[in-house]
Specification:
Length: 232
Amino acid sequence: MFDMLAFDADDTLWHNETLFVMTQEKFRALLEPYLTREWTGAELYATEIRNLDYFGYGIKGFTLSMIETAIELTDACIPAHEIQSIIDFGKAMVKTPVNLLDHVPEIIPSLAQSHLLMLITKGDLFEQETKIAQSGLVEYFTHIEIVAEKTAAMYRRLLTKHQLDPQRFLMVGNSLRSDILPVVEVGGHAIHVPYQTTWAHEMVSDHVAQQHTYAELAHLGLLPDFIAQFKS
């Protein structure tokens, strides 16, 4: 058995990327009088990646990237009221209630009765703390870790911090890049539960993915039976 079951938060326990996708559509529509939606989307993504070192992950950084992209693509001609619309897009995202994925309300409390659970999420501290509190799941996690980035080095630090044997550590998440491959790299176990849509930055090639060993489940409802296969 495992000494610790760890879970990603966004798009593993609750919906998140769909909110960004819907907001991107609003942003593309706002800038459509200036240039094509495809070009706007590509430039926004490039700005987001460029800004990760400044703002990190989350709604605040995304909103700032939308504003920067709008200014650059319109040669600073975009009017103030449209900048305000972009700010309002970001505020609406922050205010959107947390919506748990199917099976989560039953699976997490059930697993907490037999295992120690850890939540590992990356992003803005205030934003993630707010979502975690709204989720109603706080009481089921022995440890909650909010980190800037999910890398093999970060997982090694967490395993050392909590005195966990990698071979008895299981991570469950939707992102191969952040939740799965780094855990496998440090000797842990991982289960990939794909979400309906994935941010391009979190994708990895099939060639890279196939070089690692991990399990994949269609949804979290299958997790208890999967874990039950392991014996101490």
